[in-house]
């Protein structure tokens, strides 16, 4: 099967003023598309061409893993954002966050601090562990919690510089402020319910 660039769940300018159309044109239209194209080139004519994206991420290594995981991570990231996002979660997700961190504000503060402090290009994740509790996980490069059967990703924040450099230059903390205005709690809640 050939992998395709996912359709964004919103218009290219829908995340403005927090994330610009120009950022999406580069981040989604060029970086994400290049991961998809490179992945297709790597699997074409091989048994891996028959695997789903998730199965590729779970079995691959090296360059194939990097490309497949970056496609999957970006697919997940675009869904972690919404033009109608921000605010606070509700229901079971809010209860689970409060059980683990005491409050949504405390979670947001810890997630931001850990993600900003990640020295690498990578990802900040909210995950559900096998015991049902929540945690914050930082991954470098293309690494993803999808590779760990004991973790269920709920939402992610991309901290590769191409995610924020056009809008925020090197100010990752400013980008994180914007992330919280766009975070898609409904997507995270749906993942929690899986």
UniProtKB/TrEMBL annotation:
Look up the EC number in the record and give it: 1.15.1.1
Per UniProt, residues of the Manganese/iron superoxide dismutase N-terminal domain are 2-82
Q: Quote the function comment for this protein.
A: Destroys radicals which are normally produced within the cells and which are toxic to biological systems.
Database matches in Pfam families: Sod_Fe_C, Sod_Fe_N
Q: Which PROSITE patterns match?
A: SOD_MN
- For the Manganese/iron superoxide dismutase C-terminal domain, which residue ranges apply? 89-190
The entry's keywords: Iron, Metal-binding, Oxidoreductase
Q: Which residues bind Mn(2+)?
A: 27, 74, 158, 162
Keyword Oxidoreductase present in the record's keywords: the answer is yes
Under Gene Ontology molecular function, one entry of this record is:
transition metal ion binding
Instruction: Kindly give the PANTHER family that the UniProt entry links to this protein.
Output: SUPEROXIDE DISMUTASE, SUPEROXIDE DISMUTASE [FE] 2, CHLOROPLASTIC
Q: GO cellular component annotations, sorted alphabetically?
A: cytoplasm
Q: How is this protein named in the record? A: Superoxide dismutase
Which reaction(s) are listed as its catalytic activity? 2 superoxide + 2 H(+) = H2O2 + O2
Tell me the protein family, please.
Belongs to the iron/manganese superoxide dismutase family.
Enzyme class, spelled out: oxidoreductase
Gene3D superfamilies (UniProt xref)? Fe,Mn superoxide dismutase (SOD) domain, Iron/manganese superoxide dismutase, C-terminal domain
Organism of provenance: Natronospira elongata
InterPro entries in the record: Mn/Fe_SOD (IPR001189), Mn/Fe_SOD_BS (IPR019833), Mn/Fe_SOD_C (IPR019832), Mn/Fe_SOD_N (IPR019831), Mn/Fe_SOD_N_sf (IPR036324), SOD_C_sf (IPR036314)
């Amino acid at each position: 099967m050939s992998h395709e660039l996912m359709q964004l769940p919103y218009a290219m300018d829908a995340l403005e003023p927090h994330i610009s159309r120009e950022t999406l044109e580069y981040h989604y239209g060029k970086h994400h598309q290049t991961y998809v194209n490179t992945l297709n080139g790597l699997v074409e004519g091989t048994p891996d061409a028959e695997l789903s994206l998730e199965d590729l991420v779970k079995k691959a290594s090296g360059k194939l893993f990097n490309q497949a995981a970056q496609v999957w991570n970006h697919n997940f990231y675009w869904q972690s954002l919404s033009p109608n996002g921000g605010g606070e979660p509700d229901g079971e997700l809010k209860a689970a966050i409060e059980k683990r961190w005491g409050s949504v504000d405390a979670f947001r503060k810890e997630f931001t601090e850990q993600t900003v402090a990640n020295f690498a290009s990578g990802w900040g994740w909210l995950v559900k562990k096998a015991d049902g509790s929540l945690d914050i996980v930082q991954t470098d490069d293309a690494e993803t919690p999808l590779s760990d059967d004991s973790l269920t990703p709920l939402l992610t924040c991309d901290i590769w510089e191409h995610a924020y450099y056009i809008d925020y230059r090197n100010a990752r903390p400013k980008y994180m402020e914007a992330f919280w205005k766009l975070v898609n709690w409904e997507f995270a809640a749906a993942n929690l319910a899986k």
